[in-house]
């Protein structure tokens, strides 16, 4: 576990006018340095990942595009000793469409 970690996710949605229902989101995720194994023999470095979203909501319909790791930062999620380090996902774009019943 890192000694320091923080996250923030915020959104803004236009409330009136022709663009009513259009929204934007931004998320920041910071993970500090942490030990790579139980013996504390090496350190996984800290990282800051940025996510973003744009969406449109009208009545019961919502369409969204989410972007993970916006700046394509290379980071290590976790480790199974020195031989295997799980690298975090690269820039990823996810589109979704939903209808609320």
How would you describe what is shown here?
The protein has 101 residues and is mainly beta. The chain has one domain (5-99). Helices cover 0% and strands 57% of the residues. The protein is built from no helices and nine strands. The protein has strands at 5-13, 22-31, 34-35, 43-44, 47-58, 61-68, 76-79, 85-87, 92-99. It has a five-stranded antiparallel beta sheet, with no helix packed on it. It has a two-stranded antiparallel sheet with strand order 3-4. A two-stranded antiparallel ribbon has the order 7-8.
Comma- or semicolon-separated keywords:
single chain, 101 residues, mainly beta, two-stranded antiparallel ribbon
Q: Based on DSSP secondary structure assignment, what is the total number of beta strands?
A: 9
* Major sheet summary line: 5 strands, antiparallel
Report the β-strand fraction as a percent range. over 45%
Shape: elongated
Order of helices and strands: EEEEEEEEE
Mean pLDDT: 93
- Give me the side-by-side strand order of the main sheet: 1-2-5-6-9
Work out the helicity level: under 10%
User: What Rg, in angstroms, do the CA atoms define?
Assistant: 18 Å
Structural class: mainly beta
The domain tally reads 1
User: How many angstroms does the end-to-end distance come to?
Assistant: 41 Å
Number of helices: 0
Low-confidence stretches: none
Short description:
With 101 residues, this protein is mainly β.
Write the layout of secondary structure elements.
Elements: E1 5-13, E2 22-31, E3 34-35, E4 43-44, E5 47-58, E6 61-68, E7 76-79, E8 85-87, E9 92-99
């Amino acid at each position: 576990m890192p000694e320091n970690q923080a996250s923030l996710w915020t959104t803004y949605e236009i409330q009136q006018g022709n663009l009513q229902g259009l929204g934007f989101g931004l998320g920041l995720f910071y993970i500090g340095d942490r030990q790579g194994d139980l013996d504390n023999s090496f350190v996984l470095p800290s990282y800051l990942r940025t996510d973003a979203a744009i969406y449109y909501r009208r009545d019961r319909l919502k369409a969204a595009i989410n972007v993970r790791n916006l700046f394509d930062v290379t980071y290590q999620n976790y480790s199974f000793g020195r031989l295997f380090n799980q690298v975090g996902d690269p820039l990823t774009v996810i589109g979704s469409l939903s209808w609320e019943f």
